[in-house]
Amino acid sequence: MCGRYASAKDPAALVEEFEVEESRVDEPLAPDYNVAPTKEVYAVMTRRAGGADDLSEKDASGNDATSRQLRVVRWGLVPSWAKDRTIGSRMINARSETLAEKPAFRRAFGKRRCLLPADGYYEWYTPESADGVGG
């Protein structure tokens, strides 16, 4: 994922588009065309009813009891071993080749995946001036 993205859809559109069964959005977020790490964003995720992250457990009837949910989360990953939550602003990218092995991403990759709906994405850069020097 790039370092910035745009998010402008309203929650009702996301509920319909992603076939969300349970919306946990209390207040809609304002459209944002410069979403940066640590900002609040919409996320689509499958979680157990009641909010538990562990999808491997069954309910008392032996059913999976999961639902697709729309939630507001803070963009970035804070590993369980992190002593400072600000590390989440730097933990937004992972290489698919090593995702399942890296300690920072391994547990989240296995049990806490989600989808961050985006209307577009980009990276900031400094354009070169006419003389070839960035400015």
Account of the protein in words:
The chain is mainly β. The chain has a single domain (4-119), classed as Alpha-Beta Complex (hypothetical protein yedk fold), CATH 3.90.1680.10. Helix content is 10%, strand content 23%. The protein is built from 2 helices and 6 strands; from the N terminus they run E-H-E-E-E-E-H-E. The chain has helices at residues 11-17, 106-111, and strands at 4-7, 22-23, 32-35, 40-48, 66-74, 120-122. It has a 3-stranded antiparallel beta sheet, with no helix packed on it. A 3-stranded mixed beta sheet has the order 2-5-4, with helices on one face. The protein is globular and about 65 Å long. The two termini are 26 Å apart. The model has no long low-confidence stretch (mean pLDDT 82).
Distance between the termini: 26 Å
* Shape by Cα distribution: globular
Supply the CATH class: Alpha Beta
- Please give the share of residues in helix: under 10%
Q: Low-confidence parts, pLDDT < 50 over ≥5 residues?
A: none
Question: What is the CATH superfamily?
Answer: SOS response associated peptidase-like
Question: Which structural class do you get from the secondary structure elements?
Answer: mainly beta
CATH architecture label name: Alpha-Beta Complex
In total, the number of domains comes to 1
